[in-house]
Design brief:
Oligomer: heterodimer
Largest interface: A-B, 41 and 45 residues
Number of helices of chain B: 1
Radius of gyration of chain A: 16 Å
Largest sheet of chain B: 2 strands, antiparallel
Radius of gyration of chain B: 17 Å
Number of domains of chain A: 1
Strand order of the largest sheet of chain A: 2-3-4-5
Helix content of chain B: 10-25%
Number of strands of chain B: 3
Chain lengths: 131, 70
């Protein structure tokens, strides 16, 4: 028997454990690591961020993530696309997708399920939750 | 073949999800889905179901006498 469910997803409040899991997955994709309490520099000025993923950006040093006033990404992304790095918008999209995937995996583990994850075509992430 | 109850979740680029339960019997599939959605709500992920359907069971293949496979 098979049931299909299609759903839209929004994040109403951020769970730190889920966020950290998503950030680790995103750091792995970008070939970097997750830093805590990091000063994210841009061409002019910067911002202390709770989390950051250092990157060799043309005018910045990292993608910063802050929880102040909701989940926010800080980065000077000018020219980022030319180095194969995501723009701020693309980074935020990837983080949203990975947050949802991390939340599903965490929820399934709490239900006693075994989780297997793999990338699918067109950038989708498939999770197999096995009882 | 032994079917292990499995919930497949496909998370799209935009964060939308498609969920399929396979190998379940009765209403277990929807019960697991409900539990999963409740856990996701606890983690701040609000899920709005926009379509849901129950797939028709696949009929058992018939064996044709004298057939051969290539």
């Amino acid at each position: 028997m098979s049931h299909w469910t299609v759903a839209r997803v929004s994040i109403s409040k951020v769970d730190r454990q889920v966020l950290e899991r998503a950030l680790r997955a995103l750091a792995e994709k970008l070939g970097t690591s997750v830093q805590r309490g990091f000063y994210v520099k841009g061409h002019k000025g910067g911002k202390w961020c709770e989390y950051a993923l250092p990157a060799n950006l043309p005018y910045g040093n990292a993608y910063g993530v802050s929880l102040e006033g909701g989940l926010t990404v800080y980065v000077d992304d000018f020219g980022a696309g030319k180095r194969g790095l995501p723009t701020a918008e693309e980074f935020a999209r990837m983080l949203h997708q990975l947050y949802v995937a991390a939340a599903v995996a965490s929820a399934a583990e709490e239900m006693g399920m075994k989780v297997e994850a793999c990338e699918r075509g067109e950038g989708a992430i498939e999770l197999l939750l096995v009882r | 073949m032994i079917w292990v109850p499995t919930t497949k979740v496909l998370v799209g680029r935009d964060g939308s999800v498609v969920v399929e339960g396979v190998g379940y019997s009765g209403s277990e599939c929807l019960e697991d889905l409900e539990k999963l959605l409740e856990k996701l709500r606890e983690k701040g992920v609000e899920v709005k179901v926009i379509a849901q359907k129950r797939a028709t069971p696949i009929p058992s293949p018939r064996l044709a006498a004298g057939s051969s496979s290539s």
